[in-house]
Amino acid sequence: MKILRAAIFAALFVSNAALVPSARADDITLQSKDGAIEISGTLLGFDGEFFRVDTAFGVLTLDGSRVDCKGPACPTPGAYVARFTLAGAGVMAEALLPALIEGFADTAGYALAESDAGAAERVFRLDDPGSGTQAAEITLRSSNTADGFVDLISDQADMALALREVTSAERAIAIDAGLGDLQGPRQYRVLARDALVPAVNAANPVRRVSMEELAAVFSGEIETWSALGGENAPITLHLTDPQTGAGAVFVERVLGGVGTALSSALVVHTNVDALAVALERDPRGIGVTTLSHVGVARPLTVTGACALDVAADQVTVKAGDYPLTLPLYLYLPGRRLPKVARELLVYLRSPEAQGVVRGVGFVDQDFAEIPLAAQGGRLANAIRAAGPEVTLEDLQRMMPLFIGKRRLSVTFRFLDGSTALDAPSRANVAILAAALETGAFDGRKLSFAGFSDSAGSATANLRLSRRRAETVRAAVIARTEGHDPARVKIETDGFGEALPMACDDTAWGRQVNRRVEVWVD
Q1: Which fold has domain 367-520?
Q2: Topology of domain 194-315, per CATH?
Q3: 3-state SS string for 452-481
Q4: Which residues of 68-82 are buried (b: 16+ CB within 10 A; e: fewer)?
Q5: How confident is the model over 345-378, as pLDDT tens digits?
Q6: Max Cα-Cα span within the chain
Q7: Distance (Å, rounded) from C-alpha 166 to C-alpha 164?
Q8: Integer angstrom CA distances of residue 497 from 211, 374, 386
Q9: For the whole model, what pTM was predicted?
């Protein structure tokens, strides 16, 4: 396995070797102020405070205030400019991050200028308006998620932009390359959320589609609109590149989920904006775009055989209740980043940044409070589905937990049959913990309510749902520095298969149903 990882990493490195700046190959010598210690190696980076050097002892990070630097690659005192690169998913690099960088510069008091670096790159210069000196240079490289990980692993980027989780192979290569564990809680975060949305021309009478029908349409099994309740006319398929970005995520999650292949009778578009324009002109077309770029097309509600419908909107996407929610990930290396980069990371979690996220059409990470009255549909479905395993008495036991309270949009979901959180939920632990630390819920009570899918016995699922609620509570408290139970009371309970969010006869429906909700009084 190690040989395989090494071979993959070698290929990754060679594919990007031409991009390595020559300055990184220069040797330097760092000598302690008293002259007692001297270390030589290849300068990998200097963030204005610390040197990062590849030495005979491995990669070392050394405090610049404690050493003198000798060699042609040594930075000129007082002339340091923080340079760092973010690379990966085009929808993030082209739409989300430019707005966030602009917001960061405005909040931090930097003068911002952009220079043209080519079609796939944008370079932002941040200047200190007081001194007129350059403080930072931020490069945004637009490609796709896989290339973003390649750039991060081969040291051609300092952060990776991704529409999916890191794969096990990418994670292993990153560990071998000394980048740390990309699944570690401090090496990734969710910047915002988006969603894959099936959409049609505004004149099309079809209003909803099931996941199974969507897979059948894009595999070519369903060819006419009459099969979906529309007119007897052929369906035209529109998608972005099925090898990268949103198109690839759709193929993996929808077609891959039922084991079918993508139809060859497909109109492929360069990006989601072009796809939206095509749907506007094609009354018989159906496409998969993103909620942030749906344009004037009409999104279709996703439905199931059990009559549970869910439409993509700010609330359902923020809570992860919509089955094709798309977390937008930022992955970080396990090393120190320049000070300006660290300041940017702090800004990305700020209320100001969440306003920017909303302003450019994505779903932000701020909490929404959803009243019980807005959830009548799923309560009615729960009553209709009551039977021998989940009885009306079980539902009556559940209701006192919710009456007089509001559901927070932050929701935690789990891997199949376990109490292990999925990646977006692990990120949610940090978000909720930070809110508790800042006193956002002081004087209020949080109720963690666990739910399960219907696989297995109702008794076992009830126990599992309770363990999941306790797992989330423990994870949030462990991440909260100085948690004081007197400030915020947290209770847990579990209700098993009650109150499903989606049909349990599909893998995606079961994933949506395995959750812990957070309710606040």
Answers
A1: 60s Ribosomal Protein L30; Chain: A; (3.30.1330)
A2: D-Maltodextrin-Binding Protein; domain 2 (3.40.190)
A3: CCCCCCHHHHHHHHHHHHHHHHHHHHHHCC
A4: ebeeebbbeeeebbb
A5: 999 999 999 999 999 999 999 999 999 888 777 7
A6: 85
A7: 7
A8: 21, 21, 10
A9: 0.85
